[in-house]
Amino acid sequence: MKNDWNKRTRAVHSGIRRSQYGEVSEAIFLTQGFVYDTAEDAEARFLEAGPDEFIYARYGNPTVSMFEQRIAALEGAEDAFATASGMAAVTGALTSMLKAGDHVVSAGALFGSCLYVLEEVLTRFGVEVSFVDGSDLDQWRAALRPETRAVFFESISNPTLQVVDIAGVSALAHDVGATVIVDNVFATPVWSDAIAQGADVVVYSATKHIDGQGRALGGVILGTREFIRKTVEPYMKHTGGSMSPFTAWVMLKGLETMDLRVRAQTANAQEIAEALSGHEKLARVIYPGLADHPQAELVRRQMGKGGTVLSIDLAGGKEAAFRFLNALEVAIISNNLGDAKTILTHPATTTHQRLPQDQKDALGITPGLVRISCGIEDSQDLTRDMLAALARA
């Protein structure tokens, strides 16, 4: 029966483990350690813990386990490991499986911290990294080699919203035996079925749509049970990137309403993108749900909807972008996304500030670019707010 549940039902009920009190809302097991009846029991558990046995919160915890089981069921993955942040998930997924001499192929359009991990951290330890245009399958094909151990990309890139063909890249990567790791934050578990489309490993910043209310940092790595428990878990539990029990409880509560929020946010993003398209003060509006998006057909096939984020490029550059941002009354300026509140960011001076100018140019991060993460406010209020701010830009 549970295998037939749709995503929204899985997001509410999967993974629940109730105590002897039969609580409705999941319990927070706010403990770092666990008691053994005898020394023999402790020895046996350290040798091999059972599915409902725990040793130390860095290794696992009942509340964290509930979140892992629920998000795995939602994603269609065999297993999951919850992490302290989204970047802990990205770093853990990559570094847990790579060693000196390995080769990685990555899309070049990435969040700044992801670029840092690939360009600075992995190469420091002898991993070779090649970057390609993520939307060009020919570039992926040319870059892949017999020694390529992994490929990495954001299914929708931050902040220019380039969409990568998950099935196409996965087929090419699997031909050379490479593991496909997808950062799926912008696509969300609601609109994406990345594992069904060929991804081996999916990572999320749970800070974004999963929490969705600006409360807690978190991340998660999803994949096969063998990869999660034999590769990821030993690395994460020894390096200390595990999720806390309280954060896991927050994320469980977030999952219950995520589907409703993401659908409302996506509807707002579509409406705002259409309202702003062709505006005289904008050089471009970038939204995967618009017919003029470069990968519009892929978006329809891979996601069905355009997601919760759009970007606009003000023709007047940084000065116009700042005037626009400062004139907003409903939407707020911050650097998070996937929140119930509509949040705007100027990537060139914040999230991607430290990228060299030539890299910003290559990625399309112009002085006038503003990223808009749509919330769940009334769409008419948001549209009026942005049109009024543009009038003052």
Could you name the key traits of this structure?
393 residues; alpha/beta; Aspartate Aminotransferase, domain 2; Aspartate Aminotransferase, domain 1; 2 domains; seven-stranded mixed beta sheet; five-stranded mixed beta sheet; 15% strand
Task: Outline the secondary-structure elements.
Elements: H1 7-13, H2 39-47, H3 62-75, E1 79-83, H4 86-95, E2 103-107, H5 112-124, E3 128-132, H6 137-143, E4 148-154, H7 166-175, E5 179-183, H8 188-191, E6 201-205, E7 219-223, H9 225-239, H10 245-276, E8 282-286, H11 296-302, E9 309-314, H12 317-327, E10 332-333, E11 343-345, H13 357-363, E12 369-373, H14 379-391
Parallel strand pairs: 2-3, 2-4, 4-5, 5-6, 10-11
Antiparallel strand pairs: 1-7, 6-7, 8-9, 9-12, 11-12
Helix pairs in contact: 1-3, 1-10, 3-10, 4-5, 10-14, 12-14
The N- and C-terminal alpha carbons lie at a distance of: 55 Å
The total count of helices amounts to: 14
Q: Tell me the number of strands.
A: 12
CATH topology of the largest domain: Aspartate Aminotransferase, domain 2
Folded structure, characterized:
- By secondary structure, this protein is α/β, with parallel strands linked by helices.
- The chain contains 14 helices and twelve strands.
- Helix 1 packs antiparallel against helix 3.
- The longest helix is centred in the middle third of the chain and has 32 residues.
- It is globular, with a radius of gyration of 21 Å.
- The mean pLDDT is 96.
